[in-house]
Design a protein that fits this description.
Layout: H1 2-32, H2 35-56, H3 59-66, H4 73-100, H5 102-106, H6 114-140, H7 144-168, H8 172-191
Length: 192
């Protein structure tokens, strides 16, 4: 029972810390962003979240159910690899289509330009897909401590570039979205 409590604490800390830090940084970001810039960032973040669902097609959620159907380590690794490759191909194709049909995509928010706003959000969503399989893999393998470490590292990778671009470079909405994209790209390099 103590392992369950300890793992639950690690997962809770890993999930809560990211949300708490982002909440605490909100007044700082709003001090450096104009109202319309914050509206742009929020709109693109919503788009990024929706794209993340379409890029993965929910395949990462299948890990929770199907991982235990494999009895040997080789089968589990092959399964995780198949899910990761499927998500990679799906997100790459979808990303390409979004850039090809950029005029249609930019009609979602007509007052927001595709370049740089939409493009940063799309690329950020692609980068974010790569974090899902390792995190869920750590959960199903009951490696809660490693999950916590990965969650905290991903928080650091995401917050520092955004903070840099918004506060120090005073990049506004473009800086915030660019920082998010760079942070997720750096996390991707780390994960690989």
């Amino acid at each position: 029972m103590s392992k369950l409590v300890k793992n639950t604490a690690y997962y809770t800390i890993g999930n809560f810390t990211s949300k708490a830090i982002n909440f605490l940084l909100l007044p700082l970001y709003t001090a450096y962003l104009k109202t319309e810039e914050y509206g742009i960032v929020s709109s693109i973040q919503v788009l990024t979240g929706v794209l993340l669902i379409f890029f993965t097609l929910g395949l990462e959620r299948a890990i929770y159910r199907l991982f235990y159907d494999y009895d040997d380590e080789k089968g589990k690794k092959n399964f995780l690899g198949t899910v990761a490759i499927s998500i990679t191909i799906t997100s790459a194709v979808a990303c390409g289509l979004l850039f090809i049909f950029k005029d249609f995509v930019s009609s979602i928010y007509q007052s927001i330009e595709f370049y740089p706003y939409f493009s940063y959000g799309i690329v950020t969503a692609v980068f974010m897909t790569y974090e899902m399989v390792p995190k869920i893999s750590l959960q199903v393998n009951e490696k809660a401590r490693n999950y916590l470490i990965l969650s905290l590292l991903s928080l650091i990778f995401r917050v520092i570039p955004v903070f840099w671009y918004v506060v120090f470079l005073k990049g506004g909405a473009v800086g915030m979205l660019k920082g998010a994209m760079i942070g997720n790209g750096a996390l991707l390099i780390f994960l690989i």
